[in-house]
Specification:
Layout: H1 2-6, E1 13-16, H2 18-26, H3 29-49, E2 54-62, H4 69-73, H5 79-94, H6 97-104, E3 111-116, E4 123-125, E5 134-138, E6 149-153, E7 158-163, E8 174-179, E9 184-186, E10 189-193, E11 205-209, H7 216-222, E12 223-227, E13 234-241, H8 244-302, H9 309-344, H10 358-381, H11 390-436, H12 440-475, E14 480-484, H13 497-522, H14 529-535, E15 540-545, H15 559-562, H16 567-579, E16 589-595, H17 602-614, E17 620-624, H18 632-635, H19 644-648, H20 654-657, E18 659-660, E19 666-669, H21 678-682, H22 685-697, E20 700-704, H23 715-720, E21 723-729, H24 740-748, E22 753-760, E23 770-773, H25 809-820
Parallel strand pairs: 15-22, 16-20, 16-21, 17-19, 17-20, 21-22
Antiparallel strand pairs: 1-23, 2-13, 2-14, 3-4, 3-11, 5-10, 6-7, 6-11, 7-8, 9-10, 12-13, 18-19
Length: 821
Amino acid sequence: MEELNKIAPKPPNREFDYYKIAKILLSRWYWIAGSVLLCFLASNAYLWYTPKVFATSAVIKFEEKKSEISDMVGMATGADRANTSRIQSETIVLQSTPLLLNAVKHLDYRMSFYVVGRVLNRTNELYPAKLLDVQLIKFDTVNFFRNLIAFKPINKTSFNISYQGQQSVEGKDITQVCYYNVPFTIGPTSFSIKYPGDLPKTTSILFKLNAPEDFIDRIRGGLRMQETAKNSNMLSLQQTDANPRFASDALNAVIQEYVYYDHNQRTKSALQMIRFIDDQLDFLATKLNGSESSIQEYKQNKKIIDVSSASERVMSQAKELESQISIIKLDLLAIDQLQQDIIKGKDNVNINLNTVGASTNTQIGEFVTNLNSLLALKTGLLKTYNNHSPQIEDIDRQILQIKNTTINSIVSSRKLIETKLKYIQDQLVPVNQQIAQLPAAERQMVSLKRDFEVNDKVYSFLSEKKLDQEILTAGILPGATIIDLSQPNYNPVSPDDHGLHRIAIVLGIAIGLGFIILIRVLNPYIYNKETIESITTVPIIGVIRKFPEEIDKFSTQILAISRPKSIFTESVRAVRTNLSFLASEKKSKTICVTSEVAGEGKSFVAVNLSSTLSLIDKKVILIAADLRRSKLHKTFHVPNDMGLSNYLANQCSMDDIINHTNQEGLDFIVSGPVPPNPSELLHSARMTELINDLKERYDIIMIDTAPIGLVSDAIPLVRMSDINLFVIRSGKSKFHAATIPQRIAQEYHLPNMVIVLNAFAQDLLHSAYYSTKYTGDSYGNTSYYYADYTGHEGSGYYSDDDENKWWQIWNWFKNRASFNK
């Protein structure tokens, strides 16, 4: 048996009980409901005060353009990368300030009208509606009045105008009375307003003048772009704005302006060539007119009718050769200009003429096209990145590489042109020698006609080139096609009412549940026996229920006697029953009742246990051993002039301090006046003598001691007692209080330490979330049966069951109706 007693007690087995967890979380369902309601109200307030945002979309398609030149210059070869680069560059172009500025000019942007809303006096734009016919009498596109102007009708002839002046004190408006169709001036701008018809006098209309620049940030801020599908050549554009009609019109204006801009960029090269040819044609036209006049004048002066056939043949050869030389020199001029443009780093370079070999010019043309694309891409990226960013440095490397390749090709082409020019000039030498052998008059005439016909042939050549370029320009199509224009969408995309309400409900539930979990996590108090069992192995001999009614300050009612059929009294009886198993070999038992701190109900437990023990033919005496702050005399309504302290101080005998109650078998001893040395008195031999004498008269000696966690007065009483009852109060005692009984038992080798949980009331919020399974080795051989009577209310066994709850009112009415019948 001794070996068994030395076996360390084992705590009971615990398993998670998901049903209990659910009950805990739902125990404060009104917290969850309240948090859901608050979040829902907050979401509605947010929806009420947040302006709605509308979105519209359009789709454009980029025309695919394939080139093999990228392989020759070492550029990105993958179709994915090429397509991605183009999409990125075009999205930057679409958001560029010049393009957006031109797009705004397609809108009716000059004047905006607003009405004042109900929420926070927020203004709502009425675009494209115009509630007033406002005429601009004096208006400067640069310097004009930009603030809001408020219009309020007075009668059929006049109205009020109020506005905040440029120099006025902030918050104070200037108001003036104006008349319909009569000009009025605000700042540098003059207006007139036509009569709008009958309007309520409470009507307030706001309007303001705008510049195109005022809308750039608004459009750019709401513009979003992305590929419709990965690696596709189609771009989806979305415009968001507080005004759905403005969003649609702005997006359409942007994509239409982009198509126009792209077309202009594609025709720029041809237009530059046409301008170059026009410049050459103007120069040649002057020379032709001069050559023709010189021929006529020479014929008249020399009276020459015509030259001989020999002269005609020589002149034809010279004319043909010199025409070729002139055209080749034009090519040299064009190719030199191209080389200078590339070296100077112009943003757009073009090859003008096309008289050299087809393969050579095709290569240069492809080089120039790719160079222009890279330059445009760099211009767009510079709006986002700085010059030292990796993206810009990568573009610069590509530009430098293609520039070197292009210049090398130009140098090669120039050598070919110069070789051809030298060859033709060599052929012209013998022709010029033949001309030199002609008579002087014929030679002069041949020279004049040769200049004229050479210039005329070059002029014809350039005219043909200009016509070719004009035809080419007319056939150039934009690089982008509008697939789907934007349409106004009057369903707001933000805020999302249904989504926000769903979030509010989920957030409300999460906050409610989180608050429940937080309260449990932060809770420092003991509420149930499972918590005590998880902290200490000292056995619990019972759970005393919380009395359902208000108890006076000094517990003057002995509740276990006054309410014999209550659940509270039954729980006290359960403790009394388990006490009978402790120190059963003792004829007379000394029971010491203590706790950690004051207010945990040790005196209350001692009084009610004493009263119930006296009901089973036990002679019980209750001793108020808390010599510092005892209140037992107030419970029994007796004076505290003579008590335990007097006896311990040898001022009276034992019989002098014993008081009798109306309950048969129950006596008590009050504490008496507070002594200066309470701890020493309780340690004295006279206290031991008192206990021994009382054992001769009483079956139970119940000692109500001072809190053991505050003072050491109770230590000698604890050591001499047969049973030590440690009171833990539900919702009052903290976790560390449950460790005190075990520490005392181990320190003083007390095998008789037990715990009582006092004032227990079922509270699902703080209940255990696991199921306890007791086995044969739980607590060794010292386990006690007791119940907390949870869930048995309404069973009909207790007087508490007769109390009418608020939810039982309907049953009360039904019973009254049956009785009346």
